[in-house]
Amino acid sequence: MWYLLLLFIAVLVSSSLQFQFKHHDNNEVIQILEDLHLKCCNITRLYTLSETSVTGLPLYLIEFSTKPGQHEILKPEFKYIANMHGNEVLGRELTLKLADYLCEEYLKGNPDIKRLIQLTRIHLMPTMNPDGWQVSTDTGGTDYLIGRANNNSVDLNRNFPDLDKIVFSHEENHIYHNNHLLQDVTSLREPLQPETIAIIRLIMQIPFVLSANFHGGDLVANYPYDASRSGKLSGEYSKSPDDETFRHLAMQYSLFHADMANPKRNSCGGGRESIQFAKQGGITNGAKWYSVQGGMQDFNYLSSNDFEITLELGCEKYPPATALREEWERNKKALINFIWQSHIGVKGIVYNSITKLGVPNAVIHVKNITNAVATDIQHDITSVHDGDYFRLLTPGTYKMTAYRDGFLPHTRVVKVINRPYTEAQRVDFALKPISLPPYVRIQPHNILNSNPEELFSSAQEWTNWINNNQEPLALD
């Protein structure tokens, strides 16, 4: 009798916690994340960013990892950010369902999901712009622009420091400085919004390897650069140094989506470039579509080690709730497969050959020697934390060099063979100190203790903040 009663109660509780395909309001988003954290407490962490939205709503993320709350050496960091434009809502619901799916499948013992979480630290942010979502929803969710911006009427995907302008200027003037460009910012086009500041701090704190941000209004995987070099508004292919890798990454979403890469599907009718998306594998160079200055995608690439693409998830910005279950099924394989792409290429540790301690902030430069003509990839990444690094690359032969002031450089030739759903191959670099005493690790700064009003009230204070916060940060 009691057994049956307990079983009945368990069924009721289970059904009440079962994910519902609907448009969840801002309070429900938090509740779902809290419930998932309780259900999968050993592999999740629920946290908020340093700033709130303009109206004071906290900006939540949920993390999946076997050791939540800390960077594990040689484990890549990955993120999805949704609902940057408040009226583009499909990504918001897909991110919530993805979190639910990872938790449920891990508990069920799904070997593929368990392995993914064991090998990857995954961060999911359902909404970057909860204020915009509220405005869009309150007005019916049918307008193409209402709710797009934050509560200060600022488009958050135009609000990041314009690092494209800086790297293009360096190219023209033959200045070899092509990464971690925040230190070169001397002025801002407009005040940074609290949501933007929060994401910048997240990017500076956690050494992301790969990420994507979700949008709506078309169906395509968009990759850098988003800004044109000439200033042309559209039609100009703006090639990044990692163009081959970015094309691969975009295709790894589009090909695993139900029909993003299907050449026979209907286009969303968003202009001449949009009509071609389905015929070119469901991917596009950002500036070739239309030029964006101050976007989050290119900011990630040029301010950190993170390779980010933008995923336009469908023609409708605010699809009806009845379409959400089908959209999950259309995107599920692509969402999981793209996370696995954080394991392509090469990873390893840069360490002091005398002390055997990891060397952070060592530069990793790559030259592609696959073909007869060797080509330098003019975008370097750096080692982080305890000297670990991750370099996303497509299959081929590369000459890789690690170097840092105070050490002799170390070069290795690497043949990259990317095997699906497994770890990147490991290549370590031992750097010999030029002089003794042995290298002493520099302690990181903690930008999270800074006052944002003081940080960003002037260009000079912005520059000071950048100069003081180029070290990788301790997470906890």
From TrEMBL:
Locations listed in the record: Secreted
Domain of life: Eukaryota
Key words of the record: Carboxypeptidase, Glycoprotein, Hydrolase, Metal-binding, Metalloprotease, Protease, Secreted, Signal, Zinc
Biological processes per GO annotation: proteolysis
Gene3D superfamilies noted in UniProt: Carboxypeptidase-like, regulatory domain, Zn peptidases
UniProt keyword Secreted, yes or no: yes
Protein name: Peptidase M14 domain-containing protein
Source species: Cryptolaemus montrouzieri
